[in-house]
Specification:
GO molecular function: ATP binding; D-xylulokinase activity
Radius of gyration: 24 Å
GO cellular component, one term: cytosol
Strand content: 15-25%
Helix content: 25-40%
EC number: 2.7.1.17
Oligomer: single chain
Organism: Tuber magnatum
Largest sheet: 8 strands, mixed
Shape: globular
Family: Belongs to the FGGY kinase family.
């Protein structure tokens, strides 16, 4: 919790972020100064749900879900802590937020009435949770699929087969079929639980679910977040009726309308929050969006500027005026700017893959107070591609501790050598320095390979600026290798926070180095074809 004194009557704005592992509430002034931060970490603050890193995993079913009740209790807890700390909710004039993308919440027909009739003398959990199954009559399923879920391969195949292949599906919806996307998840839910689906009155995304709690009624899905469902026709900006019909009966009425106006004022905050926490009746709730669309709003990005989020997952985001769909990446509607699209690459194996190699290196080295010290030393002392001489083989490694979505392959580790003549040879191991560098290189090469079509009009084909966010953005080895592989005509920058001084070059935006490094960038370009072939070989093993 972080608080500071406020000038009299200064208006505040509250942002909520419902991510995989925590709920964060951030209060700022109109000048973007942060005045209060409240975080509820699910594993430690709500241990009775038994989650690990915010989710339940069923390896037999490749299923990853989160308990919806946990999110409700987290909101209750966060606001109660803020009230106890003396936070003045009456100064809040607007609330918006973000939710982890793709996850779905299934409401019963009693939900609308329950949301609008909450008793301010009782907590949210007390009124929305049932005694037997955890959520009684307000929800028809007590869980929500998480973006790490891999249980929907059959449903993804059905989506692509139905329209004539992954290329056509990407053309319609901006993405090929993905395990985590809401359409395939709803199809699986309907196939497994037809009775529960029949009792389902409305279906929300995580973002619109959180918005609904504060609004006191079911909120519409946001125009940016809707694109992560494999159900929205990007060219016509309407639901794709053929994909709705494939997924489940009468799905359109359950999903409801989509809010086409970005950031629209949806209405005042629910009277429940006015009476229980002291919000002003004039406090406005605006549309909530997905966590990835919200990330691209962290900066006023120009076309072909890129943000790389180095968190649990690794995500590359760019704003582009070009609708050039491909199964290799995602194109979403931009969350605020009509006429722009958001290009997105999202990898399950982000921090976990880097940490696995780090831990293997640490176990064989002397102890240090900095857990990354040994990893960084080895990565920085190893030349690009592990190649010291022109006659040496280049080294490419792919490291997936968990199943990956880009490309769609099982968990595993693969290492290859590339001879100076271009021959690929699979090997069992690298030295620790090569592994340390190759894990970063492989993640960056995958991003470069897939972003290349949208950068091909630029010479050389690289982003204008690259902004790094997330904990790993402060790691010198990771940032150096990323910029060597990806380039960045105007340099690579670290964004320490998404509020306050972030707009000032001398504030929380820190230039970590030049992007384009002549000679090195080209060397990585020379192995893109080999990297693509390695991915093809891995995929053919499935």
């Amino acid at each position: 919790m972080l608080s500071s004194s406020l000038p009299p009557l200064e208006q505040l704005y509250l942002g909520l972020d419902l991510s995989t592992q925590q709920l964060k509430c951030l209060a700022i002034t109109g000048s973007l100064s942060m005045v209060h931060e409240e975080i509820v970490t699910f594993d430690s603050d709500l241990p009775h749900y038994g989650t690990k890193k915010g989710v339940h995993m069923d390896s037999a079913l490749n299923e990853v879900t989160a308990p919806v009740a946990m999110w409700i209790e987290a909101l209750d807890l966060a606001l109660s802590r803020m009230k106890k700390a003396g936070f003045e909710f009456g100064r809040v004039r607007g609330v918006s937020g973000a939710g982890q993308q793709h996850g779905s919440v299934f409401w019963s027909e009693e939900a609308e009435g329950a949301l609008g009739g909450l008793d301010p003398g009782k907590g949210l959990m007390e009124q929305l949770a049932g005694e037997e199954n955890g959520l009684g009559g307000v929800f028809t399923w007590e869980r929500s699929p998480n973006w790490q879920d891999h249980s929907t391969q059959a449903q993804c195949d059905a989506f692509e087969r139905h329209v004539g292949g992954e290329e056509i599906l990407a053309g319609i919806t901006g993405s090929k079929a993905h395990h985590r996307f809401t359409g395939p998840q709803i199809l699986r839910f309907y196939q497994r639980f037809p009775g529960r689906y029949e009792r389902t009155s409305r279906i929300s995304l995580v973002s619109s679910f959180l918005c609904s709690l504060l609004l006191g009624r079911i909120a519409p899905i946001d125009i940016g977040d809707v694109c992560g469902m494999n159900l929205w026709d990007m060219r016509s900006n309407t639901w794709s009726q053929e994909l709705l019909d494939l997924s489940a009966p009468d799905l359109g009425s359950r999903l409801g309308g989509v809010e086409m106006q970005p950031g629209k004022h949806l209405g005042p905050v629910s009277g429940y929050f006015v009476k229980r926490f002291g919000f002003s009746e004039e406090c406005i709730i605006t549309s909530f969006t997905g966590d990835n669309p919200s990330t691209i709003l962290a900066l006023p990005l120009r076309p072909l500027d890129a943000i790389i989020s180095l968190g649990t997952s690794t995500t590359l985001l760019m704003a582009t005026p070009t609708y050039f769909p491909s199964p290799s990446y995602h194109l979403f509607n931009h969350p605020t700017d009509k006429g722009l699209y958001m290009f997105m690459l999202c990898y399950c194996n982000g921090a976990s893959a880097r940490e696995k190699i780090r831990d293997e290196i640490i176990s064989a080295s002397t102890s240090s107070s900095d857990p990354w010290k040994g990893f960084n030393e080895k990565a920085l002392s190893t030349p690009p591609l592990g190649k010291r001489l022109k006659t040496d083989d280049a080294k490419l490694g792919i490291y997936f501790p968990i199943p990956e979505i880009v490309p769609n392959v099982r968990a595993g580790t693969w290492r290859y050598r590339i001879s100076p003549t271009g021959n690929l040879k699979k090997v069992e191991s690298f030295d620790s320095g090569a592994d340390a560098r190759a894990i970063i290189e492989s993640q960056a090469l995958s991003m470069r390979l897939r972003a290349n079509p949208l950068l091909s009009t630029s010479t050389p084909a690289q982003p204008q600026r690259v902004y790094l966010v997330g904990g790993a953005s402060k790691n010198p080895a990771i940032t150096k290798v990323l910029r060597q592989v990806l380039g960045g005509k105007e340099g690579v920058y670290r964004l320490d926070d998404f509020v306050a001084e972030r707009w000032e070059e001398g504030g929380r935006i820190v230039k970590v180095g030049e992007g384009y490094e002549e000679g090195v960038w080209e060397r990585y370009g020379d192995v893109l074809g080999a990297f693509k072939e390695v991915e093809r070989r891995i995929g053919s093993e499935e």
